[in-house]
Amino acid sequence: MKKTYKYTLLFASALLSVATSCRKALEISPVNTIEQGKALLSSKDVEAALVGSYSALGSRNLYGGRPFLMADFLANTDAIEWYGTYAELTQTINKSLLKTNTFVNNIWADSYSAINDANNVLAAIDKVDATKKNKVEGEAKFIRGSVYFDLVRLFGKAYNDGSPSTNPGVPIVLSPTTNITDGSYVSRANVAAVYAQAIADLTDAEAKLPATNGFFATKFAAAGMLARLYLQMGNYAAAGAAANRVITSGNYNLTSTFISAFPKMPEPGNSGQPADNTKEDVFAIQVRTLTGFNGYNEFYASPTYGGRGDAVISKDWIDLTYSNDDDRINAFYDDGDMFTSKFGNQYGNVPIIRLAEMYLIRAECNVRLAPAAPIGGQTPLQDLAVIRSRAGLTTTTATLIDILTERKLELAFEGFALHDAKRTQTNIGSIPWNANQLVFPIPQIEIDANKNIVQNPGY
Amino acid sequence: MKKLLLSMILTFGLISFAFAQSKVISGKVTSGTSGPIPGVSVFVKGSPANITQSDATGYYKLTVPNEAKTLVFSFIGYTTIELPINGTTVNANLKEENTTLSDVVVVGYGTQNKRDVSGSVASVKSKDLENLPVTSFEQALQGKAAGVQISAQNGKLGQGITVRVRGAASVTAGSEPLYIVDGIPITSGNFSSTSSPTSALADLNTNDIESIEVLKDASASAIYGARASNGVVLITTKQGKSGKTLIQFNALGGISTPSNHREFLNAEQYVQLMRRAGQGAANQDFLNGDYTTLQEALDDYSTIVENRLNRYSAGNNDYQTYKVNTNWERESYQDNPVTQQYDLNLTGGTEKTKFYIGGQVLDQNGIIVGNSYKRYSGRLNLTNKATDFLEVGVNLNFSNSINNRLSNDNAFSSPLQSVALSPITPFIDPRSGLISGTLPGAATNYPVYYNPFIGIENAAYKATVYRTIGKAFANVNIAKGLKFSTDFSIDNLNQNEESYYGSLTFRNTGTSNGDGQNISTFVINANTNNFFSYNTTAGKSTFDAILGTSYQKSTTKSSNIEGQDFPSDAYVKLGSAATKVIALSSESAFSFLSYFFRANYKYNNRYLVGLSVRADGSSRFGANHRYGYFPAGSVAWIASEEDFLKSSETISLLKLRASYGLTGNAEIGNYSARGLFAGTGAYGGIAGQIPSQIANPDLTWEKTKQLDLGFDFGLLKNRITGTFDFYQKNTTDLLLDVRIPQTTGFGIKTQNLGALKNNGFELGINTENFVGAFKWSTAITGAINNNKITNLGGQILNSNEINAAVEGQPIGVFYLPEYAGVNPANGDALYYLNTVDPNTGNINRGTTTNINEAARIFAGNPNPKYTFGLNNTFSYQNFDLTVFFQGVSGNKIFNAGGQYMSANGSNGYDNQTVDQMQYWNKPGDITSVPEPRLGYGNGVGNSTRYLSDGNYVRLKTLTLGYTFPASVLTKIKLSKLRLYATAQNLATITGYKGWDPEVNADHQSTNINQGVDFYSAPQPRVISFGINIGL
């Protein structure tokens, strides 16, 4: 009897200990991450999600640089010599992109993830403190509008190629995804609709953003992006006006020398250091040692400066392109091969909009429109001279050709070559400006996952 | 004192004979089945030194003291008998031990007589696992359990090993079995910070293992419910035995060499091929219209190629005379790497307290330079009968391992990647006197790639693991047949990975002043099992049952810091790094709460029925589906007990079995069901958050329904025993990472979608071919597995563009364009179009030079269809010999390095495999190697060109041992002394032309990505000598 009593006590305590530990046995909350229902509750939460949207925007596959780099590769004839092993970029420079190209897919995926991030912010905008609400909304719309603009000009036919209101652009998604539903299987909107969405977002952003906002998007970042977008559409009046708003803001100045407009290269043997934007940067992606990534540096910089040294600049091209008295000829360095100095700092910010571009846009629009009074009250010759005098050059004429040439000299390797060729209907070597192969394929895995998406012609 | 007595007896032996105070006993030892038995030890009970052995005719003669009363007859494989001494003749008739029948096998939460097992369980005992120079026990298990396919990824030490029980039962969730050590689910799997996996199972000492049982069918494994679909591996460690303490010391030392070499071009061949490649490219440029005359193109290319050859020849023209001829493949291997293993075990105890103490030092040097593995481990298994009804005990295992690891197979810094370097490049650069490619100098373009040997001196990657597995348990006998068992265990794994890449590895790291990384991983895995077991016998009925509960919680914490810019390479700790580039910590946990029940009923010793059910709850699953129920049942009939077979001389055992049941697979991320935000959205130094995962509140386990039909047999008094199984495993509701439109902001969602099937046959046969003085026994295992994906929702998963998961095909099927050889007219590589005409369905067998135009075909299965093992054991007198073959068939291997190393000089300046010298040279040449065309990639795309048969038969283990006879042992006062020599991977017959058919490049291995070779190191051939000493 005594024994039985002892057993009963033993089992009871054993079972009890199990039972108590079991009550919350299966309730384990993630700690590296948090559940989405707890993520966007306060103003601070939404502001943090906005910062997250910037980090998505700064991905190497987005404004970290790759879409611009790939656009330049597609437009390349003799400037860039490719020695890399990444097949994705070999395809790009050969203008024979495959629909399985993972770089293309990464651009698509990261663009929409930035859009989804911005959509999360916009859907929770009412949680933001009243004093910050306009700013936060403006920034989210700047990000969303900018990304739609870059998506449509990479994955859709050029605005000036055929009918933008029937040519397929990219799907437009304006609300955050919290669950996969039938509505998640979207179709491509037409090119004009995507441009319209980008204009709406950027216009609203310009209206709501403050004039200064640290390194985040400002009223003038939105205006600058609009200037670029309108120029791409051939709406020169709007483009010139937008560029003029940036120039006349007075918030930005050209740096004294051309090279100082870009992150400073370290001394050989040292690694680069993060630094603030230059005074010429209207908008730049922030790179720090632990966050951000300079996607230009990865391929354009020699190994001494943190890159792979895969994209070498042709010595012949440099000599043919820049005159000896052009200071910009010095923006290259010799490290076994020639490399551009624009991206020689691994932790340098990625310039997205420089003031110089705004002068060139205003100049071009004024030349094209030839209005009685030039936009901004400055003649194309005056605007062009601003850019050229910094490079140590004098300016005598400012024809359209002069200005387009100046864009090449000034903005080389910054992602303008392909889009300029398309809007000016300039063939790339023997390849017509509107060739299918100059438009990105829709990633095959996106087509596999969503039957509503149609592939671009030629793929 | 005893020993003194023994020697006195020995000393006086002769004297006593002379004085006739003793008598001579003689007789014959026979066995019912095999006649006279030689070599039987015959001794006087109580005086083991007074011993002799039967001769070839079974006859023996032994002088014994007059007072001796009993003789003992003892022989391996037979039941020891004792016979009284009556007169001077004592004949003995020995009975064979029926070990195969009386074996006890470990099953979930208990043991069963093998005879009563109605499920499918493969059992491997310590004698087949011990004393092999392996790092982890899975390597010793390879080929020894039918239906358990074990494959190493490469020959690096301490690397992950792939184990599949009855085929892969999942596509994107885990496919490794559940590992249970002494009743507790231990932390297994991979905690490597690189993409090449290591295995937490390597912390166990193989020599501590008493037996390994693999639960294969549903009735055996469903007691482990939601985690049993991939099979369950039960590991039982050695326990104490009452009696005199046995002290055993084992030492083993050996030398490793690569089991195979791959041959690359020598200097002369390399120069010839590269020059020819320049000419080939010149011709193409000319044909493309880039040059007006061919000669101009040839001159240009000649300049380019000669400049490069000069560069790779350390900036001189020695290449023209082939003066330097470096064999980089051979340089990748260490000179005579030594493996040493020392074991000290103590087994003993009293009726009340029993203990096993084991300790081991393992020190292995890998075949590849810079690779080594050391492990120190100890174990204490202790039980105590506290009272007549209470038994308590502890199992404690601790180990410390230090693995000097190598880079992933796909890294330039992996030593075997040096085969890409030119044979004209000297190992030591004569210009600097340093290893070629070492700074200062033209480090960015000499040699062709980063020289991995720079890293051997200037970089280190060390993984240190401290592991403690402790279990306390108690068994309480409540009443007759009723027992309560409780245990509590903690399995604690602490791992630190530390690496430093010095400034001279700059070309590899891109960092001028050193890069250091420190990653700590801490896993604490707590588990408790509490269950009742009951058994009773009434008349012809036997009944047993268990009922219990278990709870497991496992938490993994890790931190990772990386810094760059060190004052000098003398500083390697991160406090000295000027720039910190990574600083993160993370934590993740899961829990399982389970209830289980099992009942077995046996009637009349011949009809068996088993039933089990487990209810499993897991934190991993969606709120809507947190619990699952996993029932299984089995029936068996021991037909040989029936009257019509009982008297059969031929059939000694025939048991028919059938089982069916449901198991699950829960091996997904700990939080896969939830919609998540991550705080990883920092930007410009300001914190931010981003959505990181889409929710799936419906997520639940993968379900596998398995049918097993089998029989066990014993023939000719069990001299031939065997087991045969047919199984069908249907897995549905696959835990699949399903691609969703990326326009949602997400790429994948883990869903229960899709199905796959595995079916197959397994055979295990053990025979005693000779049982006399010369003994020969054979163990055969064989298995056939057919794997087929039946539903993936129309997806094709094809991340590496080599292997695919696609409906209607086995998982990982090679999905490649089909190579059509070389156009004899111009040397172009050709591919079959294989496009299907949408109207007629005809396949276009035309060819193209553009690989992108060629439709991909299902070109073969990376997973073997047939796996087998053949173990022959011979013994004669004191010699024993084990010859173990193991092999696979029906699979293919893809050499993903082919596009660089077998690229007919068309893909840069990589050195080439020797077969590339058969290149197309002039119109009319018939060859499968296209014309070399530098930079033109002629034929280098991934295609069936680089696919070959993967079947192999390997002499996995050859062991020859000599055990000293008792007569010698008594003189040297030892109870056991055995010397042996053992060779691993001594010979391989294979259709694969690469280094080793047992391969899967470590950096890319997944369930789908299998059978891919990428500069992967071959398995070592280890030849070692050992000694077992028993005190």
From TrEMBL, chain A:
The keyword RNA-binding does not apply. Coiled coil: none annotated. Residues 333-423 form the RagB/SusD domain. It holds the Pfam family SusD-like_3. It is found in: Cell outer membrane. InterPro entries: SusD-like_N, SusD_RagB_dom, TPR-like_helical_dom_sf. Gene3D superfamilies: 1.25.40.390. Residues 88-231 form the SusD-like N-terminal domain. Keywords: Cell outer membrane, Membrane, Signal. Residues 1-24 form the signal peptide. One of its GO terms (cellular component) is cell outer membrane. Belongs to the SusD family. This is Membrane protein. It comes from Pedobacter psychrotolerans. The lineage of its organism: Bacteria, Pseudomonadati, Bacteroidota, Sphingobacteriia, Sphingobacteriales.
From TrEMBL, chain B:
Residues 114-232 form the TonB-dependent receptor plug domain. It comes from Pedobacter psychrotolerans. Residues 1-20 form the signal peptide. Belongs to the TonB-dependent receptor family. It comes from the Bacteria. It is found in: Cell outer membrane. Pfam families: CarbopepD_reg_2, Plug. This is SusC/RagA family TonB-linked outer membrane protein.
